[in-house]
Design brief:
Elements lengths: L1 H10 L4 H16 L4 H17 L4 H14 L4 H18 L5 H16 L3 H19 L4 H23 L7 H22 L4 H14 L6 H19 L4 H16 L3 H17 L6 H10 L4
């Protein structure tokens, strides 16, 4: 903020350095969840576009940052921004540049949110392969791209399964499992067992294995690892902790371990009493159905 003020006074509000500082401030505010970040991003984007043109690297950066700021609330607008960034960066930086690949990955996330799954999957695959080639298969950015791809394959498999077409999605499930396992191994090796990516991938792998014959013991072990990790890092009322607890309870109930399931449901109920609204909607349905008195 002091840099923006200082540059504004010394150079003027529309100077490129002032606008760049404004863009950087907007990025920090967005990461902190401050809606002021979106407003500042729009101002910086308008100013940089006017000064440098829409295809300049800094203008493209401003478009990218605005897209990230609004992608949850305004996915259609974010889509247009990311498409413009992918096109612009491909020309200016190259289609295999890290910044181009990052824009493709975020475009894939937005497209998945608005239901264009096939194109989203294609973009995630391109981003993952590109990061792997540029940064190596164990770089943190590559692992995040790999996790995103695995998650999308996972969701596609479950869509087929819900439609009664699980046998047609076996290859999706197998690939998702392979990717999750690589993310977990690499992230654990480089960042530790309690790293956010490690725990996310472990929770998702447990969910992927949850309902399949012979996989319940593995899923149970994974859920317990996630519960331990999230509890140690974030506490018993954290959403990830409660999600893993309820998932474990549902699995135990399905396996006929009713007393153990009741114990886990009680733990989750106590956690929710302290922090209501901490379960994602997809797991609330399991919780309400299996433990209606909570």
């Amino acid at each position: 903020e002091s840099v923006v003020v200082g540059y504004s006074q010394a150079l003027g509000a529309k100077h490129i350095d002032t606008l760049t500082a404004q863009m950087n401030l907007a990025t920090v505010l967005t990461e902190q969840g401050d809606p002021e970040g979106s407003r500042l991003n729009r101002l910086a984007l308008a100013g940089l576009t006017e000064k440098l043109g829409p295809s300049h690297v800094r203008s493209l950066d401003a478009q990218y940052n605005l897209g990230k700021a609004i992608m949850d609330d305004s996915p259609e607008e974010a889509r247009k921004l990311f498409e413009a960034v992918v096109g612009g960066r491909s020309v200016v930086l190259g289609s295999d540049h890290i910044d181009t690949l990052s824009a493709q990955m975020n475009l894939g996330i937005v497209l998945n949110e608005i239901g264009e799954v096939e194109q989203a999957l294609e973009l995630h695959e391109i981003a993952f392969q590109g990061f792997s080639a540029k940064l190596g298969v164990e770089h943190t950015d590559t692992l995040r791209a790999e996790f995103n791809l695995a998650q999308l394959l996972h969701v596609q498999f479950y869509e087929l399964r819900r439609a009664g077409l699980a046998e047609k999605g076996g290859h999706l499930r197998a690939r998702a499992r392979q990717l999750y396992e690589h993310v977990i191994a690499s992230s654990t090796r480089h960042s530790g067992a309690h790293d956010a990516t490690t725990l996310e991938a472990t929770l998702n792998l447990a969910a992927l294995l949850h309902d399949f014959p012979g996989q319940a013991p593995i899923a149970q072990r994974l859920y317990k690892e996630v519960i331990s990790g999230y509890t140690e890092c974030h506490g018993a009322q954290y959403q990830g902790t409660l999600t893993a607890i309820v998932s474990l309870a549902v699995l135990l109930e399905q396996e006929g371990q009713h007393d153990a399931a009741e114990k886990e449901f009680k733990v989750a109920a106590d956690g929710l009493a302290e922090a209501p609204g901490q379960l994602p909607s997809w797991i609330e349905a399991h919780f309400d159905e299996s433990y209606p008195d909570a």
